[in-house]
Amino acid sequence: xxxxxxxxxxxxxxxxxxxxxxxxxxxxxxxxxxxxxxxxxxxxxxxxxxxxxxxxxxxxxxxxxxxxxxxxxxxxxxxxxxxxxxxxxxxxxxxxxxxxxxxxxxxxxxxxxxxxxxxxxxxxxxxxxxxxxxxxxxxxxxxxxxxxxxxxxxxxxxxxxxxxxxxxxxxxxxxxxxxxxxxxxxxxxxxxxxxxxxxxxxxxxxxxxxxxxxxxxxxxxxxxxxxxxxxxxxxxxxxxxxxxxxxxxxxxxxxxxxxxxxxxxxxxxxxxxxxxxxxxxxxxxxxx
Amino acid sequence: xxxxxxxxxxxxxxxxxxxxxxxxxxxxxxxxxxxxxxxxxxxxxxxxxxxxxxxxxxxxxxxxxxxxxxxxxxxxxxxxxxxxxxxxxxxxxxxxxxxxxxxxxxxxxxxxxxxxxxxxxxxxxxxxxxxxxxxxxxxxxxxxxxxxxxxxxxxxxxxxxxxxxxxxxxxxxxxxxxxxxxxxxxxxxxxxxxxxxxxxxxxxxxxxxxxxxxxxxxxxxxxxxxxxxxxxxxxxxxxxxxxxxxxxxxxxxxxxxxxxxxxxxxxxxxxxxxxxxxxxxxxxxxxxxxxxxxxxxxxxxxxxxxxxxxxxxxxxxxxxxxxxxxxxxx
Amino acid sequence: xxxxxxxxxxxxxxxxxxxxxxxxxxxxxxxxxxxxxxxxxxxxxxxxxxxxxxxxxxxxxxxxxxxxxxxxxxxxxxxxxxxxxxxxxxxxxxxxxxxxxxxxxxxxxxxxxxxxxxxxxxxxxxxxxxxxxxxxxxxxxxxxxxxxxxxxxxxxxxxxxxxxxxxxxxxxxxxxxxxxxxxxxxxxxxxxxxxxxxxxxxxxxxxxxxxxxxxxxxxxxxxxxxxxxxxxxxxx
Lengths: 288, 330, 236
Ligand SMILES: Nc1ncnc2c1ncn2[C@@H]1O[C@H](COP(=O)(O)OP(=O)(O)OP(=O)(O)O)[C@@H](O)[C@H]1O
Ligand SMILES: [Mg+2]
Hints:
Helix content of chain A is about 75%, strand content about 5%. Chain A is mostly helical and about 290 residues long. Chain A has one domain (about 5-285). In chain A, a hairpin with a 2-residue loop joins strand 1 and strand 2 (about 135-140). The longest helix of chain A has about 30 residues, at about 5-35. Chain B contains 16 helices and two strands. Chain B has a domain at about 35-245. By secondary structure, chain B is mainly α. In chain B, about 75% of the residues lie in helices and about 0% in strands. Chain C has two domains: about 5-80 and about 155-235, P-loop containing nucleotide triphosphate hydrolases (Rossmann fold), CATH 3.40.50; about 95-155, no CATH class. Chain C is built from ten helices and ten strands. In chain C, strand 4 and strand 5 form a beta hairpin. In chain C, helix 3 (about 95-100) packs parallel to helix 6 (about 140-150) and helix 4 runs antiparallel to helix 6 (about 140-150). Chains A and B meet through helix 4, helix 7, helix 9 and helix 11 of A and helix 4, helix 5, helix 12 and helix 15 of B.
């Protein structure tokens, strides 16, 4: 650590913060699934990985623009997840769902190995950087940080201002009471689940601009989203974004301390955190 | 009365079947063919996974706690056993005891953390612990030699036939343990806890305590299998014990046989045999294909045959399997 | 007849909670169910709205059997439940809570607005604080929000579970008066109360639920003067 001068230190931290933003985005969506919709989705990371791959091929090999691609990707994620929620997840117990999603995760991950090989792929975007007082900031990363913040803000606005959003919030808070208002809670949950998948697809597009992707990447992101949403408190969407920033930051620092044991330390911190404050940092509300 | 007779008949039939199977398995190593080492390896691997699935079943079947990182207990058992022998030059027995101790502590911590929060945490925490142990064993090269793993000193080279009998004995004991637990007060307690935790609590069952106890029992069972594994394979690498592949195989064996049943894993072990054969046959080509098949099996079994193969055989072993896979619709 | 329950039994977690319940609610009527803790009052209400399943018996609403309907479908028919413990959407404002009650006709802003005005007329306190988060209100005010939210669904039958739970006398009086006013709007009320004396005073008819069975029924006045009721529930 001693050999590190201040500007390089800041460079690493800011870079960590920016990737933390994207972590925050997909973790918010995971947090929403886990805490709000009560789906323990172990295929989450694999779907994220798949979205990264598809984006990679869209950019490198297929000749379709980003807009049609986005429409197709979001549309298919929406439809697939809606059908899965409706026909599989919503009818079953949590532990059955854990196993089913685990199976789906295995299928996606291994299909990726079979089709795309286990070789890591990277978009290889040439990084433009700006330098402020010796601190380097990568433009792509900065853009991704803002983009994730904006997407989340949009999602929050949707939840707070529209009828559909408010209905989702009501169902999330208390499915039973929502049904007393004449709300078909199950349908709302299917819809909300699909929306979280659209957010997931968007995160995949953004992630692949920053990192390379390989079939096993899903496991790492799954773990990350779990950490982040525990730290935020289950179901806390905004909290998950800030926890994402925090984790991005922390990963950067741990990597400075010892890149070899960064992951190990991360797990330890997480376990300690679970012992000390299992309800999360940003929890305030109790849910009915 | 007629029903009782039927029950007795079935019991007799199934115990006759079990005895016949045991006799065959006991006599098998006496046959001399060139295929024998291959067959014995297949069987020992199956026995290992049967035992692991029994241990997993104690949590999933009795408590409804899904351990998604069961390989952690197993791998830790293997690693600690070999490490104690290599670095501290202790006897095998002591090494096994120490690994059991470590696993109990780990299980206690996991249990204590996860019962404070929702049930899905148990799955997540076990998964995280397995990942932690994987990265630790990869990175802590000075002690674990990283990906190259550790090798058992030649002093403990046991004859394959002894190992076969040890593994077989373990299977018998593990099945017996699960059957015993189920008939004991502990089993009743755990089942009441799984089926209706709120009710169990209101009846004064200390649910947290029993969940921790079950976690420790299960971890110790897996740890012993780990110790056996290092005796049998004689080397251990992070990739062979701490990966999700191992946990997944355990879950598949338990699921295909019948979740939460004592005899189910014996049927489920078929998949281990098929797996070894397919891997031998496909070799390195089509990397990923077995994984896809496993994923499909896992998902399809939960959806279409939630009570596993044992439900076809109707082996009177359904008392802990789930009666209704559906969530109550409000 | 608005609500007609015949031989209803309910089983929860393997336990028989309600046995052979027969109960009616007529148009423009306040019906009160009294009973000790754990008698099964909440279970009864939850079963009527469909949150619990009946194991046998029939529930007729406006002479139509509703046993097989989901709870949201029953709500859409005109049954509202003000649940025990109020159960507001705690991170929503008063206005949002009330709006959720208007969900079935959300596409008709005019109707939503009219009903909001009606609720605000009943509970002027809410009008002043409509943009405050609902969890910042006192217990009595929260009960008003919960009742208001129930009324927003334009119910024909309003069920209230433990209206007076944990509230001061003054507020209970006010809420009970409001409940009486509802009859003028053609809303019938089925309520569960621990505050037996006051509830029976405003009741047209009442039932006593003991250990999952109805042991007594009659006009509010009759039960008020009944020895058993006085001894068991009014501490006389
Ligand atoms: N989901 C459930 N599973 C098992 N038993 C239940 C369940 N819900 C309620 N009970 C039991 O049913 C009985 C009646 O409960 P209920 O809540 O209907 O009583 P209550 O009359 O409303 O009581 P209180 O005055 O305390 O509100 C209680 O003994 C309760 O423990
Ligand atoms: Mg009650």
